[in-house]
Amino acid sequence: MRNLKISALALISFISLTSCSNDDDAVFVNEEEVITTLTATFTPAVGGETVTLTSRDLDGDGPDAPVLTVSGDFVTGTTYSGTVSFLNETESPAENISEEVYEEGDEHQIFFQQSGLGTFTYADTDVNGNPIGLSFNYQAADAATTGALTITLRHEPNKAAEGVADGDITNAAGSTDATATFQVAIVTP
Amino acid sequence: MKFHQLLLPLLLAVSWSTQAQYTLSGTVQTPKGIPLDGAHIHSNMLHSVSTPDGYYEINAIPKGEQRVVISYIGYTTLDTVIDFRNTIVLNATLQPHAAQLQEVVLTENNTVSQNTVHEQRLKTETIEKYSSATLGDALKEISGVYALKTGTTIVKPIINGLHSSRVPVISNNVRLEDQQWGTEHAPNLDINSAGRISVIKGANALQYGGDAIGGLVLVEPMKVLKDTLFGKTILTGNSNGHGGNIATSLHRGNEKGWAWNANGSFKYMGDREAPDYVISNTGNREANFSGDAKYIGSGYDISGFYSFYNADIGIAKATHIGNTTDLVNAINNQQPSIIEPFTHTISAPRQEIQHHLAKLDYNKKLSDNASLNLQYAFQLNRRKEFDLRRGEYKDVPALDLTLVTHSAQANWKKYLGDVTLKSGASFSLQNNDASPDTGISPLIPNYTKTDVGAYGIASYSFSDSFSGEAGLRYDFTNISANKYYKKSRWSNLGYDGVFDHFITGEQGSQWLTKPKFTYHNVSASLGVRKRLSNNLELLGNAGLAMRNPNPSELFSDGLHHSNGTIELGDLGLKKEQAVKLSATLLKSGDVFTFEATPFINRIHNFIYLQPTAAETTIRGSFPVYNYKQTDALLTGIDLNTHWKPLQNLQHTFGFAYVRGTNTVTDEPIIDMPPLNINNTVRYTIPKWHDLFVELRNETVFTQSRYPNYNFYTDVPQDGELISTLVDVSTPPKGYSLLHFTSGVQFALGKMQTAVNLSVYNIFNTTYRDYLNRQRLYTDEAGRNIQLQIKFTY
């Protein structure tokens, strides 16, 4: 008799607890934090063609590699004013991540890694007076050359570490939010 | 008859030798077979107290006729003389005082146990020593048990080279469920709630499931079966991590009527320190509670149990790498990329885990030799993993899983003279809910799992020196999941045309799928136990076990943020089938005892996680780890010895070796524990407040048998992309550590007090462990000085 009562009790609690469980259907997650597209735009200070570098990875962390495009060549000795922008194109309309990067400028920095392509200088600062890199200036090398330009957005870098504020990524640590390496050319006009 | 057998050597006692020393052991129980905890056993100046399961042991008894007294309040004292010419097993049954029966039943256990599975148990002292650490740390003291770690606080046991869902942890007869045991999901259990912890190596415990290919960890709460109220409080302070732990418990025991237990513990630790730097963000805190209430009637008992585990665990920041470039830098630099000053603060990445376990249990004595157990258990596991995230997602977890498990089981047991029969059935229903609020596709999807199982085990004593056990179990499992796959991933994994029937919908660039799997498993075990001579026993076991791929092996898909790897499951995985043969040779003795357990485990469709390549995304390239399947052969041996060259001196030796081979490719298996050897020397001076001094050496050799899963990736260097080797395969060098422990006991008013001082890693040795998932990024923690005070009242 007692046995029966206990079984009944167990059964009731079992059923009541089971019935609380959620519906099983998966909910579609639109990954809003994802950066799919990195675009660097170089506008010459005086005349000439704007150069645009784009890395687009529409499946985010999926297996498809990003597609890289370089709109044209740089011109020797030319000064460019540049901007870097980040988009999430899995959404429609695309979400502009650059604004978020700017708002949290103290937690982000963009690095330009290259050798012999010229000089990059930061043209913006965060609340602490450290560079962010969404705006920058680029002075192309005086001689024609080709090379790789790697643009990297670091999250939570140590901007106080040696060389970091000057654009050296070596001691920056933090984690990479977006990065792309473009093969570019500098040609004589 | 048995009594006369005992008297015979007593009468025949003739020769004396002053050097020889013997061990007296056995159990103390009531006439109803209930073990008596805390019974006092003494022989001259030597004494011992029985453990909660009634077991006691007195060592170093001189040869010859010695008086042995076993007493317990409320029971008639057993007072006898035994002639010690050998190791004696004395199982005593004490009669209640109030009862009319004043006689004492005394039996010497001459027959070999029907239990053909050798259980290795952690001593209470060891459990208490690890009060501020984890279950996995404590289990390492058993040879053949290694630890798989993610940092310092996430520790899971590896038994004979196998871990995770191959080694179920059974807490109070309930299998702990936790998101199906990814490698960084440690058992959600507070070691302080355990009264007894034992390990079964091999798949021979069919009543707990048929899938324990590696072995089982059994954790049982304290059982007090006498009319008493007592408590214990342990305070632990650690220098490394600048924190500690308080664990307190109260126990109300009763042989009839109400009995209860209550345990609470609180841990608070800051960053751990390696010899050369702080391992930033490795603090942890825990607040745990467990308790039960039991009503013991005549012929039945009913109990309710509840436990709550609540942990906040920091993951070393240096392991939060951005991409393969960072991984290459971490490997080449041999120094964490982030070293910050010491802090108690835990920031992202971190894990927040809550685990509730509630259980109702009913035991009924059906007749003098048959009993029935009914049990229902409910588990709720909430796991949140927080990452370094941007903007509005800063405080939103990257992974948010809720796992609900209901389980019910019935077990029946009957003794029929030489035969013991056990059988039972179990049912469980599990539901995982992955919150979409994370804004990240969940690594483990929503799923529902149903298990139904039934088993039968028969044990038989062929003779006084030979017994056998055979068991059979059947399990049915159904898993049905609900998950979005990126179309590009679906094609990349080769699912097009193979698993199209799982697709039920489409949204943008993703497929909605409802994979369903059904498994029928049969597991079996066969064991024998033979006494070869007076103090030599041989146990032999053969087990067939089957394990279904778990949801993380089937469905994992995406970036594992806390270690920057893309983890990919495989819908095509088949169930694992293992045949394990093992033998245990047990030698008991007065001065020297040993146990040796060689084993061979052949696993068909062995599932493992293999680094395969790097995959490029806009965040850079990431190492990809795929779940793969092969045939494996694991062989090895575990060895333990205890040697007492002098009355106060004891040496303990543990040796464990496992060799894992992928029999398809003839390569070693990844992540196998290296050869490890432990030596402990302990010196006791009973008259100085039971002072003991112990030195323990832990030596782990370099794992030379590993598969080469290194890969190349492009890393920007001086403006060029250079193809660079990512060495994720080479194991770190072996190491040897020395630990020291010392303690005394004394009475403080009415309280029994014990003070222990331990120094772990005395020489502050710098090392990395092959089976630490964070070994590529940081060293292991260095020296730790621990002070522990225990009050019993």
From TrEMBL, chain A:
Q: Which top-level group of life is the source organism from?
A: Bacteria
Which UniProt key words apply to this protein? Signal
Signal peptide segment? 1-21
Under which name does UniProt file this protein?
Answer: Type 1 periplasmic binding fold superfamily protein
UniProtKB/TrEMBL annotation, chain B:
Tell me the leader sequence span: 1-20
Q: Which GO terms describe its biological process?
A: siderophore transmembrane transport
Record field: transmembrane: none
Source organism's superkingdom?
Bacteria
Give the GO molecular function terms.
siderophore uptake transmembrane transporter activity
Mode of membrane association = Multi-pass membrane protein
Q: Where is the TonB-dependent receptor-like beta-barrel domain?
A: 314-762
Pfam family of the protein (one): Plug
- Provide one Gene Ontology cellular component: cell outer membrane
Compartment(s): Cell outer membrane
Provide this UniProt record's keywords sorted from A to Z.
Cell outer membrane, Membrane, Receptor, Signal, TonB box, Transmembrane, Transmembrane beta strand, Transport
Its main localization is membrane
Q: Keyword check for Signal, yes or no.
A: yes
Q: What is this protein called?
A: TonB-dependent receptor
